[in-house]
Every structure is written in C-alpha cells, then in structure tokens.
Amino acid sequence: MTEHRDADKEPDFAELKARLLARRAELEALAAASSEARATVDLDQSRLGRLSRMDALQGQAMAQEVERRRQGELARIDAALARMKKGEYGYCLKCGEDIATARLALDPSATLCIDCAG
Question: Torsion-angle region of residue 87: left (phi > 0), alpha (psi -120 to 50) or beta?
Fold first, then answer.
C-alpha cells in the first residue's frame, strides 16, 4: 500500500470509527424496533378481510426488504471496523490505492476508491 495523502488531508480515523459505531448502534436499534413488522402475517379469515391481509403482506414484505438492506449496511460497517483493526482501512480493495478522505467522510464504510467504484 502506498501513502498518497497529504498530512493535512489525513482522515480522522477515530472520528470515522466513532461514526461507524454510532451508525451500527442506530441500525441495531431500528432492527429491534421493527421486528414485529417483519413477523409472519396471520391469515385468519375471520379477523381480516382480503384487502387487509394484502396490506399486511405488503407491509411485511417491505419491512423484510428494509431489514435485508439494514443487514447489508451492518455487514459493510463490520467489515470497515475489521479493516481498521488490521490497519487496512482507507485503502481500495480493488487497486490498493488510498480512498479519498472526502469519500471516507461521506461514507466511512467505503471499500473502493472513486476510480474503481465508477
């Protein structure tokens, strides 16, 4: 890995780590709060009409998709934290060059430099 960043543009790894940990906690809290929405829909004909069941199934499907995306973001955060621990954070996984400080500030879990991401 090569060093290309100017000293004044060096990322603040402590601040980026704090942001990653805060976002992780936020996502875990959201997952816990929305667990009921992802639960199996009761199809009891005597309690709900057809349209109400369809609405419930659609709501469940949307909640499950949100959870799938949330889990993906959690995985990216965990991977970024693991790279920090190994001293490999801030480098493009494809070409090995530095990821721009501005890109990391925008998305601390970024894995690719702007050239490789494009």
Answer: left
